[in-house]
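Re: duplicated header lines in exported structure tokens

Our pipeline writes sequence and tokens for each protein into one text file. With two proteins the header for the second block appears twice in some exports. Here is an export where it did not happen, for reference. First protein block:
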Amino acid sequence: MNDVDTTAEMFPPSPTAEESTAPESPPHPRIRWAGIVWGFVLAAVAATGLAVTWGPTRLDDLATVVPQLTVSTVVAAALMTLGALALITGLVGLLRRGQRAAARGRK
């Protein structure tokens, strides 16, 4: 048998009171801002679609307006839609950045 104490290798010394710290409280769950904002946007689009097509007279009005659309009107509507999507994406990014800054401030 050898003279080396193997119990020291198997069981490291326990940390002293200075080394051991109480575990921090678990972080708060973060708010998923993208889901909230996009949920509101999709709900607004659905409500608008319902409002436009709710009654038979509104459907007739829509049926008369759609064929009268020109190419420039459709392009303008598409550009406005892309701008709205960029605006919403930027808003979500700002909310997430604020959430990260607040989390860093709590640490």
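Second protein block, exported in the same file:
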Amino acid sequence: MSNSLVKNKSFDFAVKVVRTYKHLSKEKKEFVLSKQFLRSGTSVGANIRESQNAQSKADFIHKLSISQKECDETIYWLELLYETDFLDAKRYEELHGEATEILKILRSIIITTKNNMKKNKQLIIHQLITNNSITHNS
């Protein structure tokens, strides 16, 4: 999965989160849970954006890991809002499905990046050992 895909999906999701927050605060007069939902739901995309300017692969993974945690927290708030009758089934299922998809993409990117880092580290170690043995044998 490409980073631009998750960036676009998380932005579209954040727009829906803001619109849902507006609905909850104006129509349902719910301010506490919906504020938590707004904060975590918009943080997902913000941290994905930050990851694009990471200073290292480790920083990239760190930013996406924060985004992953925020996404999981957003799912929690969605479930709570739904179970307490603040969200209807249609809106809940749409948002829950999108958040779950983003969470899976983030997990995949993080795992792939970590695996690639391990492979690169092993390759560098192998090259160092090979170069060192050539130097000693010459």
